[in-house]
């Protein structure tokens, strides 16, 4: 799957605020809830999960 300009924006948002990057990629769903919980536990797990979601979809 090719990389688009929106993917770059999502990655930047995922670094700053991980749930925002997931929301832009998948919308309001289970992935967003998981990412919010991971971000509360620590910033790095939230970023890793956000990158996974962005690169997978």
Sequence-ordered SSE layout with sheet pairings:
Blueprint: H1 5-16, H2 18-26, H3 30-41, H4 43-56
Helix pairs in contact: 1-2, 1-4, 2-3, 2-4, 3-4
Family: Belongs to the UPF0057 (PMP3) family.
Keywords: Membrane, Transmembrane, Transmembrane helix
Protein name: Putative stress response RCI peptide
Q: Would you identify the regions where 5 or more consecutive residues have pLDDT less than 50?
A: none
Oligomer: single chain
Strand coverage percent: under 5%
Largest sheet: none
- Tally of helical segments: 4
Radius of gyration: 10 Å
State the share of residues found in helices, binned by percent: over 70%
How many separate domains make up the residues?
1
Number of strands: 0
Q: What does the overall shape look like?
A: globular
Mean pLDDT: 94
What is the terminal separation in angstroms?
A: 9 Å
Q: Structural class given helices, strands, pairing?
A: mainly alpha
Helix and strand sequence: HHHH
């Amino acid at each position: 799957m090719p990389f688009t300009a929106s993917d770059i924006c999502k990655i930047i948002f995922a670094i700053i605020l991980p749930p925002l990057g997931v929301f832009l990629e998948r919308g309001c769903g289970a992935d967003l809830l998981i990412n919010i919980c991971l971000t509360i536990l620590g910033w790095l797990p939230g970023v890793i999960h956000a990158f996974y979601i962005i690169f997978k979809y």
